[in-house]
Design brief:
- Belongs to the ABC-2 integral membrane protein family.
- This protein has 264 residues and is mostly helical.
- The protein has 13 helices and no strands.
- The chain has one domain.
- Helix 7 packs across helix 8 and helix 7 runs parallel beside helix 13.
- The longest helix has 29 residues.
- It is globular, with a radius of gyration of 19 Å.
- The two termini are 24 Å apart.
Length: 264
């Protein structure tokens, strides 16, 4: 069974990569969005919130934002396959249901990898520098991809519970911006008002951002009051646990919903 899932999932993966040639706007957005967000946040806000030290601080937030956008890629891509009847064709083949979804979620990591690379290059261009060794830096990017993979399963579930591509695209994006900004992605959580501070302190987005700063050696600028909750003190452990929980939960929900949606 495991071999069948891996083999069929690999075939779906390559099929999705070949189909990227028909979606040049997706490739363009993968390249343009990191440049736009880095320029906007780094220079528009950076000058008034701490200059160079702040630019180093927010690159972790920009990398986190690039990772969470994987959910929208998956939601739209799977919704298109459902709408175009491609999933119905997969259903007629002797392949496990999990393989169809796993092929989609893993193939979207390619877009995420490109987006992370562009974001990192833009960060270097505005003055960001990691201050740790190569193993810590590699671990940071690996953690980004793990987080992106977990959120890709959330995107798959969104696609499976929505009626069409337009709704999937809207729902795949609508929660991403609040999740990005109600977190430690671009400001420390202690600057947020009461209830929002509590939410942001335990946000998985904050966890990944804090984990990346720890792994890259980019602390908060002088004068920023750093939180001291468990998630903030152990951000790597917290992020890995959240990723494992999201993958297990939403993979199970997605397979269940896929079975119900494709059974006639």
């Amino acid at each position: 069974m495991t071999t069948s899932v891996l083999s069929a999932g690999a075939d779906i993966f390559w099929r999705n990569q070949l189909h990227l040639r028909r979606r040049p706007m997706l490739i363009a957005s993968t390249l343009i969005e990191p440049v736009m967000f880095t320029t906007l946040v780094g220079f528009v806000f950076g000058g008034s919130l701490g200059g160079q030290a702040y630019r180093e601080y927010i690159v972790a937030g920009l990398l986190t934002q690039a990772a969470i956008f994987t959910a929208s890629y998956t939601a739209v891509g799977l919704a298109l396959d459902l709408q175009d009847g491609m999933v119905d064709r997969f259903r007629t083949l002797p392949i496990p249901r999990l393989a169809v979804l796993a092929g989609r979620t893993t193939s979207d990591l390619v877009n995420t990898s490109v987006s992370l690379a562009v974001t990192a290059l833009c960060g270097l261009a505005i003055g960001w520098r990691p201050h740790t060794g190569p193993l810590e830096i590699a671990a940071g990017f690996a953690l980004c991809l793990l987080f992106a993979f977990a959120l890709s399963w959330v995107g798959a579930f969104i696609a499976l519970v929505t009626p069409n591509v337009q709704v999937a695209g809207s729902l795949g994006l609508i929660w991403l911006f609040p999740a990005s900004f109600v977190s430690s992605g671009f400001v420390v959580t202690t600057t947020l008002p009461g209830p929002l501070e509590a939410v942001a302190s335990w946000s998985p987005v904050s966890g990944l951002g804090d984990a990346l700063r720890s792994l890259f050696g980019n602390p908060a600028p002088p004068g920023f009051r750093v939180p001291h909750g468990w998630a903030a003190v152990h951000p790597v452990t917290y992020t890995v646990c959240v990723c494992a929980l999201l993958i297990v939960l939403f993979a199970a929900l997605s397979v269940w919903r896929y079975r119900r949606r494709t059974t006639r």
